[in-house]
Design a protein that fits this description.
With 151 residues, the protein is an alpha+beta fold. It is 26% helix and 23% strand. The chain has helices at residues 16-26, 32-40, 75-84, 128-131, 139-144; strands spanning 7-8, 45-46, 50-53, 56-59, 62-63, 93-98, 104-108, 117-120, 132-136. The longest helix is centred in the N-terminal third of the chain and has 11 residues, at 16-26. The two termini are 25 Å apart.
Length: 151
C-alpha cells in the first residue's frame, strides 16, 4: 500500500501506456510518485479527506481519473481547461484532485519541486501570491497527513 489512508470509489484501472499517452498529448512528464499513484488508484477519494495546514482544513472531494469516468471530470479535460485554456493558471501545476468548492489540488512539475503538493484557490486567480498554497512535499505526505474529522 502506498499510503496509510484508503482510497475508495476508484475508476477502472489504467496502464502505464495510458499515462504515457496523456504525457505525450500535453507534452509533460508526471512525477514518478504521481505516476505510481495513478497506476494504483485511478480517481477515487480518500477516506480521511481533511488536510490541516496551520489553522485551516483543506478537503479533497475526489481525485481526477485518467481515461475512465465522467466527461468533464477527467484529468485530461481538467488539464486542458485549466492549464492549457486559462492563462492565469500556473503552468507548473498539474491538477489531480478537487475540493467541494472548486479549488484544485495540484502537483508541481517544476524541476526544483517536482512532486510537491499545492492547492490552487480559484477565488484568488488574479493574485498569484495568494492563489497557490504549498500543502506537502509529496502526494504520500499529503495523503498520510489527512484526518477524518477535526482533531
Amino acid at each position: 500500500m502506498l499510503y496509510n489512508n484508503a482510497i475508495v470509489d476508484t475508476e477502472t484501472p489504467i496502464y502505464s501506456s495510458d499515462i504515457s499517452d496523456v504525457e505525450q498529448w500535453f507534452g509533460f512528464s508526471f512525477p514518478e510518485s504521481v505516476r505510481k499513484h495513478y497506476l494504483a488508484f485511478n480517481g477515487g477519494r480518500p477516506l480521511r479527506n481533511l488536510f490541516r495546514k496551520d489553522d485551516e482544513y483543506f478537503q479533497i472531494q475526489e481525485f481526477l481519473p485518467i481515461k475512465h469516468g465522467k466527461k468533464g471530470c477527467l484529468f485530461e479535460d481538467t488539464y486542458q481547461d485549466l492549464v492549457v485554456g486559462t492563462p492565469e493558471f500556473p503552468d507548473y501545476l498539474m491538477p489531480i484532485a478537487i475540493d467541494p468548492g472548486g479549488d484544485y489540488y495540484c502537483v508541481s512539475v517544476r524541476p526544483d519541486d517536482a512532486g510537491c503538493m499545492y492547492c490552487h484557490m480559484h477565488e484568488y486567480y488574479d493574485d498569484p501570491s495568494r492563489s497557490v498554497a504549498f500543502m506537502a512535499a509529496s502526494i504520500a505526505e499529503f495523503l498520510n497527513g489527512m484526518v477524518e474529522v477535526e482533531e
